[in-house]
Amino acid sequence: MSNPLVRILTNYGVIVAELYPEQAPATVANFLRYAKSGFYTNTLFHRAIPNFMIQGGGLERGMYLKATEEPILNEAANGLKNKKFTLSMARLPAPHSASSQFFINVCDNDFLDYTAPTDEGFGYCVFGKVINGTDVSITISEAATGERSGHSDVPEQDVVIESVDLVEEDST
């Protein structure tokens, strides 16, 4: 059985990612639940930092936070690393606070990896990798940004996640 693929359609282009349910079962199930429900439709990549990452999946146009399900267990101790073009769950400072927001690493970010079961060492759970659309990810990360609604590194022009869909392997 192959790993599921998702298509993240943005106004900048298409990103296709392979998900890793064997290493991050709860995280992948959570992401797919949000995707299948249409939650991600018209959310933003609301944070873009060159040579670091792009973050999205929780705010709508106007920088309005969407209501989410309960946070999930952080599976960052799964052995996967925050390498270039991996997908990881965004969270608050508390280790087990991730819900809908995710990010795409646009470079190796080893400092985000799990090191210990402590608040400081828990890290960020990797649950997939971009297999097509790396250029789109880089372009988004290089967007001109500023401050908006109390957030920094917000693209000046909205980067819209138009949809996130599960795809068949032969349709990428």
From TrEMBL:
Gene3D superfamilies given in the database record: Cyclophilin-like
Ranges for domain PPIase cyclophilin-type: 10-166
Matching SUPFAM superfamilies: Cyclophilin-like
Single Gene Ontology MF annotation: peptidyl-prolyl cis-trans isomerase activity
Group of enzyme by EC: isomerase
Matches recorded under PROSITE patterns: CSA_PPIASE_2 (PS50072)
Catalytic activity: [protein]-peptidylproline (omega=180) = [protein]-peptidylproline (omega=0)
Sorted UniProt keywords: Isomerase, Rotamase
Enzyme Commission code: 5.2.1.8
Main function: PPIases accelerate the folding of proteins. It catalyzes the cis-trans isomerization of proline imidic peptide bonds in oligopeptides.
Annotated family: Belongs to the cyclophilin-type PPIase family.
Name of protein: Peptidyl-prolyl cis-trans isomerase
